[in-house]
Amino acid sequence: MVIWFDRPATEWEGEVLPIGNGAMGAAVQGGIERERLQFNEKTLWTGGPAEGRAYDYGWPEKNQSAALEAVQAQLAEQGALSPEAVAEALGRPVRDYGDYQSFADLVLDHHPVGDIKNYRRELNLARGTARVSYQADGVTYQRDYFVSYPDGVIVLRISATEAGKISLSAGLEVPDNRTVYDRIEPDQLTLTGSLHDNGLAYATQLRLIAQGGQTGHTADGRLTVTNADSVLLLIAAGTDYAQQYPHYRGTAPLPKVERTLDAASAKGYEALLAAHINDHSALFGRVVLDIGQKMPNLPTPQLLKQHNSGAAPVEASRALENLYFQYGRYLLISSSRDGSLPANLQGVWNHSKHPPWNADYHVNINLQMNYWPAEVTNLSETTGPLFDFIDSLVEPGTKSARKLLGADGWTLFLNTNIWGFTGVIQWPTAFWQPEAGAWLAQHYYEHYLFNGDETFLRERAYPVMRGAAQVWLDALVEDPTDGALVVSPSYSPEHGEFTIGAAMSQQLIYDLFTNTQEAAERLGDRDFAQRIEPARQQLDPGLRIGSWGQLQEWKLDLDDPESKHRHVSHLFALHPGRQIVPSQQQDLAQAARRTLNARGDGGTGWAQAWKVNLWARLGDGDRAHKLLTDQLRDSTLANLWDTHPPFQIDGNFGATAGVAEMLIQSHGGEIHLLPALPSVWSDGSVRGLRARGDVTLNFRWADGALTEAELHTGRDGELALRSAALTKPFELRQVSNGRAVDLQGQGEVRRFQARAGETYRLIVR
Ligand code: FUC
Questions:
Q1: Does 112 score more than 90 pLDDT?
Q2: Which of 386, 397, 504, 550 makes an SS bond possible with 342, Cβ 3.0 to 4.6 Å?
Q3: Alpha carbon nearest to ligand 1 atom 11, residue
Q4: In a domain, 323, yes or no
């Protein structure tokens, strides 16, 4: 599992090889004479609260209830309003929102080494390491890079096949001429400062450990090495950011940076590497996919080109698809680990002062999509930062709900940053997304459904879900035409006019109410369950089939069959929601199909990735696979990063989730094996995918049909299995005692009582 180039990067976007440990990321360019290792630390952001500067978190000065009611009254009268008019009434010019920043570049100058041969720059997904190697004058030079989660450092080791061959100088370059060292010592550079914009304090240290040769430093802050055998460079970085409303400041970062580097230096390269590989591969190695791939010996950009032009041998195309699937998992591990912020629009990698969309957290699809692969591809731990982040939004989000919707509970709108921005901006195209809290709450419940962790449900999920639901118990209004409860004003992301009760608004609230009611019942909060029940009954569920057979995007049949808009928000109910389960609601599934066909297969990176998932949910593996093919062609950069354009990481995560959805689904109360297998993946196997109910699965198929499966069950409980293969003779045995399992049902669905800690083996004859 390797992404590789036969040359250094010629530009950052789409050519660097990304490494990261969640908190920090680095972009490997691999220049020969000059290496520029640009790196990030997730909390380095401009904007937000600062000393002497009041921050408004996106809130109006006064409670906005009157303005909201005026818009609601206008909508009741006129039916629709332009986004511009609503933004004028309810939006707010954004102030001090800030941008995610690059931390610094490690700049490394190698002494010229003569003619270069056999250059290779690679990223090993299974190990979580990057390597640059080349030969010059008969010597092989090698640089190994990784960012360690257990040790909290960026590691770069330079070695050669002959002793005494490494001479270089190394320094840091901080953007905006902020490279002012506190200390320049023979083996380390220390740099602290604070951002001009908001006073956020930062610190970083670079340490150099050479074997053999002489080390020194220059007065302006370059560490130098002459004729060493190998050189180890270690970097730690941090800020005084704390994930705590309202000030978001904690302790000065330098002491921790120094402690981290002391510990890492004492550990030494081999031990750092071993700890890193253990940590990374324990997550990465859980899922193994075989779709008949054979990786050709071609640099990845060439393989991508060949595949896109249709010239790649089939096994090479399978290899690229498999690589792309696993890359999403790699990127999630590298950009989302406990103790830091969640993956943003660029994961953790950003080299710009003003990245697109501030490299923030958009919550009308993007942050959510980042976490779609987390549970199903067995990376549940990567959700930790997401939940910590959302938890931290509840307090400011409570004020947002009060000030902007006049409601109790918490929510946020289109976008958020690391400063608790939970209010509104004034951008007509997208600013109004009050259901964002509902959508984020879904992730907590999904985490529970996959893992069955009751403590998580009680202590983490439920308080957040309950607060998100409370908003809508207060804020829904009655549609006078039919008495149903609707969201007003309501906006289908980035498409059309403002109305009441647009499909996505309603579906999101339906999802939230359903999940919260289930959770409340399970936890014994009968009072709240009883408050939700009537509202859920009265709620317009947002599912209507329109005049041309489409699933309606709005409550009124306004859909334009010619529209190719990238957002297919009204298909939330199909994915990632669970309101439309095709085996149970064929008419609605048919309408969703009609809508998807009309919208076409184009769109930005994330839009195509979403459609991979949607077609998989519709059980059309070939169409899902076509979308994956389209995404690789239209929306994928040379380093396999997704491009909106520009680079935006959500599409990587969405596509990885989509591949998993083709192989397994479990949202409809059944574990559905091979629900949407593309015909070009006719033979294969997968290990380690997860299903709701705390089940881990390995299975194998041939000629498009399931041949065997193994289920590891973490909990006691009834499981339902669905597979077309179950219409043939098969057996299911409990591995511990070899006994055949007592199965209920017939046809494609069978039920049985699973026991915690057991393995079940299914063999189709
Ligand atoms: C949403 C999308 C855009 C973009 C932005 C970051 O607003 O509609 O296409 O992905 O988020």
A1: no
A2: 386
A3: 362
A4: no
